[in-house]
Each structure stands twice: as C-alpha cells, then as structure tokens.
Amino acid sequence: MAKAEIGVIGLGVMGANLALNIADNGYHVAVYNRTTSRTDEFAASAGELADRVTACATLEEFVAAIKPPRPVIIMVKAGAPVDEQIAALQPLLEANDIIIDAGNANFRDTMRRFTDLEGSGLTFIGMGVSGGEEGARHGPSIMVGGAEAAWKRVEPVLTAISAKYEGEACAAWLGENGAGHFVKTIHNGIEYADMQMIAEVYGVMRDHLGMDAPSIAAVFSAWSTGPLDSYLIDITAEVLKVSDVVSNRPIVDIIVDAAGQKGTGRWAVIESQMMGVPATAIEAAVAARSLSAMRAERKNAQVRFGLPPQQARREGQQVIDDLEKALLAGKVAAYAQGFAVMTAASAEFDWKLPMATTARIWRAGCIIRSRFLDEIATAFTDTPDVANLAMTPAFSKIIEETDGSLRRIVSESVLNGLPVPALASAVSYFDTYRRERGTANLIQAQRDFFGAHGFERFDADGAHHGPWGGEQG
Ligand code: NDP
C-alpha cells in the first residue's frame, strides 16, 4: 500500500471524523489510537474510504506508514495526554516532521510545547478546531498557530478539509506559537456568551410570557431568517421542537438545568483578566454555568426567599420583538469584548492576530458561525485599527437601533426576578464604555486614603495625594 501523506493520532469523536474528512478529500491517512479496539472499529467503519486509510496498531507502525516529512495530527484529550503522545512520538519521528496538536489545548501549554521542542528538529503547530463532530467530518473552522513556513507545508490539506464560506476556506494561519489555540479559547468564550444569552431570552419567553417549548421554537425559527441568523439559533429552534420519547413532553423540559463546562470559557475569562480587558459577557456566562450547577443550593434558596411577584407585562409580541433586538445588542457586546481581548493578546504576545481573517474563518464550520461574523469581517476590513468593534460604523448603528430594546428587556427581567446576567452585563458594559465621566474618581480617592496610592488631577499634572485627615496632600 502507498504511504500515507498525513497521520491522525486519537480516534475519539473529533479525531475519527477528522481522519475520514481527510480521506474524503483524497488524502491517504494513517491512524492510530491508544486503545486498539477503537482503531479496529474505525477501520471497519471507513467504508468506501478504507483504501485511503492505514490503520496502525502501534506508534512505530504508524510513523513508518507516513511519507516523510510527516505531518502528524494529535487529537486526544487535552493536557497531559498530549505531552505523553509527543514524548512517545519524538524518538520515532525525523527532522522536519510536523506535530500538530489539534485538541483544545490551553495556549500556555502550547507555548511551552513550542519551547520544549525547540532544537529537536521537529516542527510544532498548535491548531484550534471548532465545529464538533459534524464539523470535523464535513468541514471545521481551523485556527493555526506556529511558524508561517510550517503552515505553508500543511495549508493544502488543512484548507481542503476546512469549512467553506461562499467558497472561501475557513482555515488560516493566525500567528506564531500559541496564537491558534488562544483564538480558539476566545472563540469558545464567545460561544459561552452566545449560548447564555440565548438561554436568557428563552427564560423570558418561558417564565415571563408563559410560552411552551414549541411556541418558543417558532420564535427562534423566525429569528433565524433575520440578523440573528446563526448555527446556535438554528439548533436552539431544533432542540426546542423535539419531544422526549418516554414522556412525550418537550425534551428540554426533561433535561436537568445544570450546565457542564470543560474549561475553555473559564480560560477566556482568566486571560481577559490577566490582560486587564473586560469580557463581562463571557464572565457572566461562565458564572451562570457555575451557578446552574448549584442545583441543591438554588432549590433551598427558592424555598427560603420565593420568587418576586410578577409585574404587569407588555403584550407578548412587543416583548418578543424587543427580545430579538436585545439578543443582537448582547451579541455585539460579547463579540466586541472577545475581539478586544484578542487585540490585547496580539500586542502582548507579538502575534499580529488578523482580526478580519479571524472573523472570516468563523463564518462557517465553527459553533458560533453566523451572518453576524460576515459583518464583523467587513467592519474589521474597513477599519482594521479600530479600538472596539462597537466603534465601527456598522456596529455603532446596530447598538443605536437595539439599545432601547436591551434596556427594556433587562429592566423588566430584573423587576420580575428573571436572571439575565449576560444581557445585563452588556447594558452595563455599554453604559460604562460610552460615559466620559465615570465614578472611578471616588475609587482613586479611597485608594489614596487607605494606601497612599496617589491620583491624577484634572487641573494639574503629576501624582497627587488628598488632604485626608486634615493634612494637605
Ligand atoms: P473523545 O473523548 O471522543 O476521545 C478522546 C481521545 O483521546 C481518544 O482517542 C482517547 O483514546 C484519547 N486519549 C485520552 N487519554 C489519552 C492518553 N492518556 N493517551 C493517549 N490517548 C488518550 O474526545 P474528543 O474527540 O471529543 O476530543 C479530542 C480533543 O478535541 C480534545 O482536546 C477536545 O477538547 C477537542 N475538541 C472537541 C470537540 C468536540 O466537540 N468534541 C470540538 C473541538 C475540539 P482511547 O480511545 O485510548 O481512550
């Protein structure tokens, strides 16, 4: 059998589908999985692609099956398993072979791996992949970090397997070392915010308007033809329509209201905090998932406090129209924050992250894919150095058009005791961002009072101290 052009290690959900995608695109792929039975199952299920797949039982066999210089994609559980795989591969590989970690690595681990492999003769790439099972099989969004020359060597296969938006590949080189995994982390942070805001809007329809799941599904379906058109809105409409086969009730009414998380949203928040860039919508979304998991405590608190009395409500369609605009406004805040974090990281790590390209490769394949991202790509192309997405003409206009709706939804929700933490964070973010005269003068006075930290004055240069306790500063 001819040698493979590329290898994939890890035949879990993502690796198996990525390998089939590669074979489907005409490449010969060698595969290996720690548990051999999984490799056998994969080989047996490859169907008509089987003649382009070499299933290997050992790493030695796997490496020998690939034509040098070998591109090897590792798609295993993130963390220590990736280090173990690299350590096991290293003695078997030759100079110029490329190891590509395609899992959800913490970009700081990716940076360390670049350093560890320096001088080894091997090339390393940290690659973010988004799109879940379907994306991996039929075209994910691919975010590459590493040396540009290494990207050039694997560009043909990665662009071939990636999603396409109007014919354009959703795969790109974004910068050196950890750039690809950093961008994937922010992608996931934005995904958390997007999902949380959709859940908040669903909560208003369910608990304030008293709508059932199929009626809410119809609203999301209608929205999917407007400015909110996106994969997440589409799947929300889909899942709300599905009935449970056992109880015959809407399946969402049977699913426990405690969300899981694997950590990428939390990493996005940690990194934004490390850089001093607010990502309040992502923070609210991560915190909301954590609060959702505290089911027993929430139950006790409801017994103790009850729920606030419901206020008179507006006509249902008025609320629904406002919800659509509020969701759009919230999205603008989340994306503006996510892109601002990437701008700061780009400067801090000297990556020169291309914002328009990032938005472009998120337009298809990934979980947050949407029409909205095409508008973001255009906004960053037209105004590449803008400080905040909110300040681009197109997004300033959206903010103006949706501002009233966001305020009404947040204030009505607060009055009715409906939690809308991500949408509320969006209002506060805009209100703080656009107000020239803030309230941090008082914080500076407090800091100087207890810690002699000093402050600046409007009417004089230099650092000053207050006349606290009667002393002149
Ligand atoms: P699965 O749980 O389906 O598969 C895990 C894979 O990792 C298996 O091949 C498993 O091998 C392997 N593995 C686990 N521990 C080790 C180890 N110590 N040494 C060697 N191999 C090991 O995971 P996914 O395919 O979902 O995820 C793979 C990566 O892709 C993760 O980093 C994940 O975060 C990321 N990802 C996942 C997405 C998704 O939607 N699922 C989307 C985007 C990225 P074995 O069969 O021997 O247990």
TrEMBL record:
Superkingdom, taxonomy of origin: Bacteria
Domain (6-phosphogluconate dehydrogenase C-terminal): residue spans on this chain: 180-469
PANTHER family, per database record: 6-PHOSPHOGLUCONATE DEHYDROGENASE (PTHR11811)
PROSITE patterns in the record: 6PGD (PS00461)
Top EC class of this enzyme: oxidoreductase
Subunit structure and binding partners: Homodimer.
Family listed: Belongs to the 6-phosphogluconate dehydrogenase family.
Keywords tagged on the record: Gluconate utilization, NADP, Oxidoreductase, Pentose shunt
A Pfam family the protein falls into: NAD_binding_2
EC number annotated for this UniProt entry: 1.1.1.44
Record's function text: Catalyzes the oxidative decarboxylation of 6-phosphogluconate to ribulose 5-phosphate and CO(2), with concomitant reduction of NADP to NADPH.
Entries under InterPro entries matching the protein: 6-PGluconate_DH-like_C_sf, 6PGD_dom2, 6PGDH_C, 6PGDH_Gnd/GntZ, 6PGDH_NADP-bd, 6PGdom_BS, NAD(P)-bd_dom_sf, Pgluconate_DH
Any one GO molecular-function label of the UniProt entry: phosphogluconate dehydrogenase (decarboxylating) activity
Keyword Metal-binding on entry: no
Catalytic activity reported: 6-phospho-D-gluconate + NADP(+) = D-ribulose 5-phosphate + CO2 + NADPH
Pathway(s) served: Carbohydrate degradation; pentose phosphate pathway; D-ribulose 5-phosphate from D-glucose 6-phosphate (oxidative stage): step 3/3
Protein name: 6-phosphogluconate dehydrogenase, decarboxylating
